[in-house]
TrEMBL record:
Motif (GXSXG): 61-65
Key words, A-Z: Hydrolase, Lipid degradation, Lipid metabolism
Active site: S63 (nucleophile), D284 (proton acceptor)
Motif DGA/G: where in chain: 284-286
One BP annotation, GO: lipid catabolic process
UniProt lineage: Bacteria, Pseudomonadati, Bacteroidota, Cytophagia, Cytophagales
Listed name of the protein: Patatin-like phospholipase
GO molecular function: hydrolase activity
Pfam families reported for this sequence: Patatin
Annotated PNPLA domain residues: 11-297
Gene3D superfamilies: Cytosolic phospholipase A2 catalytic domain (3.40.1090.10)
Amino acid sequence: MKQSENFHLGLCLAGAISAGAYTAGVLDFLIEALDEWEKRKKKGDPKSVPQHQVKLSVIGGASAGGMTGMISAFSLQKEFDPVHLSQPDLYQPRPDNPLYQAWVDQLEEELSPGQLSMFDLLLDPGDLDKNMAQSLLNSTFVRKIADKILDAQVETSISRGFVADELKIFSTLTNLKGLEYSLDFKGDKLENDPYRIYDHRDFACFSLGSRVFPGWERMDFTHPEMLERYKLAAIGTGAFPIGLSPVKMARNGKLMQELPWLSHVSAGGGNRFPTDWYESTFVDGGMMNNEPFEKVRDALLQLLGYEKEHSVQDYSKFESTVLMVDPFPSTTNFIQPGSSLLGYAGNVLSALMNQARIKPEHLINSLTSEMAGQYVISPIRYQRVNGEEKKIEGAKAIACGSLDGFGGFLSKKFRIHDFFLGRANCEKFLRDHFTVPLDEKNPIFERGYAEISAELKPHFMSTTDKKPGVQIIPLFSERKTQPEMPYWENEEQWPTLSIHELERYRPLLKKRIEQVILKSVSLNRLDYIKLWAGAKIFLNGKISSTLMQAMNHSLNGHKQLN
């Protein structure tokens, strides 16, 4: 097959909970860089502007990453301004930027008197007034944010040159009903009694443009029913199990039958999906596949018309790659076995989440930094400790990393920090790491940089690569000596909370716990009174004290408590 004239990019956005603010910052800078490049190319100066074309072709993700990807795909249909750091206006809302609005502003402007943060909304027992408890936390804010962002009318849809005409968007889902399929074994068993298996891995797949992909719903953002499914898929992939409410959603059974990723369900067992609508209940897609880079790659290869065996790891020939954004990259921390019921329950959840990161062996073998098929952006920041600059990576680098990813709901400044860290990390990545070695002579990039003057070419080259390499997405701004990061009331670039700010959540926790206990089971009047007394007198205080202690420990571990 003839090599493509374009270079195709697939984004894999990993789960993050409130650290979706980091992913949002990465995408904000990425879109800004691509927009700027397109504007300069239109001026027609090949001696100062690389002329190759990068196409954003696939956006896939899980949990908060899936939500961010779906918001991004919607937002690319309209103009919006990137968010630059302005210290005097640090806490000001940015309603014109959907990524910032969804992950940083959230519903802060709608807080009631006395409420100080999003955590107040999560602990509000108002969702339990007339309903049984479906989650530990109040999840109504998620739907409100989705409505605010995705109901915004796109009056005039714009065409961005870097967005593929057939953009594919997907999120992973955990299907609580499960997809049934059967296997036949030889043995002494009843006839027509197959061995049944339930697969809970599921996907919500959408595409833009006129091209038809089997199993992918062609999306029209002006169609109310399609937009509602799109919203529910975004909310469902981020429905953190038990913590946030599950989502019920109906999808086209025919499309599910056609989707290659679900082909094992119908293989040998006929049509396992209804011909009209398939309905189920869904929770966090990160439970099944938290970093679906293999699915992003598969979607890219399908888009380009290649078989799965096609090599994507050769710099001299590759014409597509997967860029993963992972706010919580894998660490070497081991699970400490619990010594109580709650401890073991936490171990089980951690084990399930870790298992969701396991990939087939042939994919693991391909994941080396010397290969061309995948790149990753993950949190890195620097902090001066005893006069020396210390590099901090992963969950400890992001302010939303405390409380197992829920820390960002405690304070808007945590989310602001992570948004700008995402922008800073993306700039560094595009400038020095998202590159192609010059000696590989890839024809796409040779043509793109063919007329760049010798004087300007070093501007588009990495200063850290082992071998000289040119930027896949060229940056035109000057290299900064320090990343642009905000300063806080503590006169540091690392935001913190006071003990007083944390302690104000204790009575809110007690009230929420009491209501969740009372709304978790249906009881007759006498038993309800007994449970109410137990919850009021003992349980809510005991559980809230345990949770406050855990929150204190987590924030101290992240050096966020003063």
